[in-house]
Specification:
alpha/beta; five-stranded mixed beta sheet; 12 strands; about 20% strand
């Protein structure tokens, strides 16, 4: 990342005639790399929107958008300095911090105000409530937050997690497995409900984890903890620009999906529109991170046995960037 040049270079003196005139010279932009939560899908469209609409340019930021691959790869990019900002699932990242695996990061804004992980199945399976999952096979992305949180969800929902077979697979394969009835259910983001209904051509039953895990955030924007010390102004400018992109995307889902498709042609516009529309109810108040909810969410993760006690909110979030 190229930091802004010193103020001494911001003004040049042009000497001529009887005196000297001062001419302001614009500071070169800060170059930053950002990793999306996972690939190029509707829930991540807002970052391309912020770039296309000039929100980063107006904040004097030149952004390089990289397609992320989940919490561990994204946190690895931050730790190695390959990225300065990233999106990721907050609860999964908290567990990694609580177990001491990744600690040099802080969330600065929420994209989703609750976890969007859910169990989904088609109506023909007869599964209508969590207890019906006993003895069934659930496919989920291997190593994902869906898999991580499943034991806690099962415990609170009143059934034995060990009675369920978890089948790890690639995220892109989930809807196909369910549509072909090769599994009884899938665990994925509830934003994918329309995509599953389209693939299976059947009504879909959704059982959100948030029915029981009530204090967990979904995706958040994070930065390196060290950057909060060395350049808080950059973090503030980046956060403000990203949230403008999020706001515009929620208000203009069709345009946001088209912008995403222009940048990443593999991102199908109908699917992206569906995701953006579906996430709108879960993205307000825009960007807000509530300290007490983070405390309560940590308590939920700790009581579920996913990490030892001791993690505090200041180790995973900075609450000063969103009023």
């Amino acid at each position: 990342m190229r930091h802004r040049v010193a103020a001494a270079l911001a003004v040049v003196l042009i000497v001529g005639g009887c005196g000297a005139d001062k001419q302001a010279v614009a500071e070169p932009p800060d170059n930053v790399t950002y990793a999306t939560g996972f690939g190029a899908v509707g829930r991540d469209a807002f970052i391309w929107v912020a770039q296309e609409k000039g929100y980063f340019r107006n904040a004097n930021i030149e952004i390089d958008i990289q397609k992320g691959a989940g919490n561990v790869p994204n946190l690895t990019m931050l730790k190695s300095g390959q990225a300065q900002f990233a999106a990721m699932d907050f609860s999964g990242a908290e567990v990694l911090a609580g177990t001491g695996k990744f600690t040099d990061w802080r969330a600065v804004a929420a994209v989703h105000q609750q976890t969007l992980v859910s169990i989904m199945t088609t109506a023909d399976t007869g599964i209508t409530k969590p207890a019906d999952l006993t003895g069934k096979t659930i496919a989920t992305a291997k190593g994902s937050v869906s898999e991580l949180l499943f034991p806690a969800y099962a415990k609170l929902a009143g059934f034995d997690a060990s009675s369920v077979k978890i089948q790890g697979t690639q995220p892109t394969a989930l809807n196909g497995l369910m549509a072909k009835r090769q599994v009884d259910a899938i665990s994925t983001f509830l934003l994918s409900e329309k995509a599953l209904a389209s693939a299976s051509k059947k009504p879909v039953t959704v059982m959100p984890y948030s029915d029981y895990l009530k204090n967990l955030y979904g995706n958040v924007i994070v930065t390196r903890a060290s950057l909060l010390t060395t350049d808080r102004d950059l973090v503030r400018r980046f956060t403000d620009a990203a949230l403008k992109g999020l706001q515009y995307s929620l208000e203009h889902p069709d345009e946001a999906a088209a912008i995403l498709n222009k940048a990443e042609p593999t991102a199908a516009i109908p699917a992206a529109v569906g995701e953006i529309q579906a996430m709108k109810p879960y993205s307000e108040p825009l960007g807000k991170l509530n300290q007490q909810r983070v405390v309560d969410g940590i308590a939920e993760l700790t009581s579920a046995g996913l990490m030892p006690a001791g993690l505090t909110p200041d180790k995973v979030a900075d609450f000063s960037f969103v009023p």
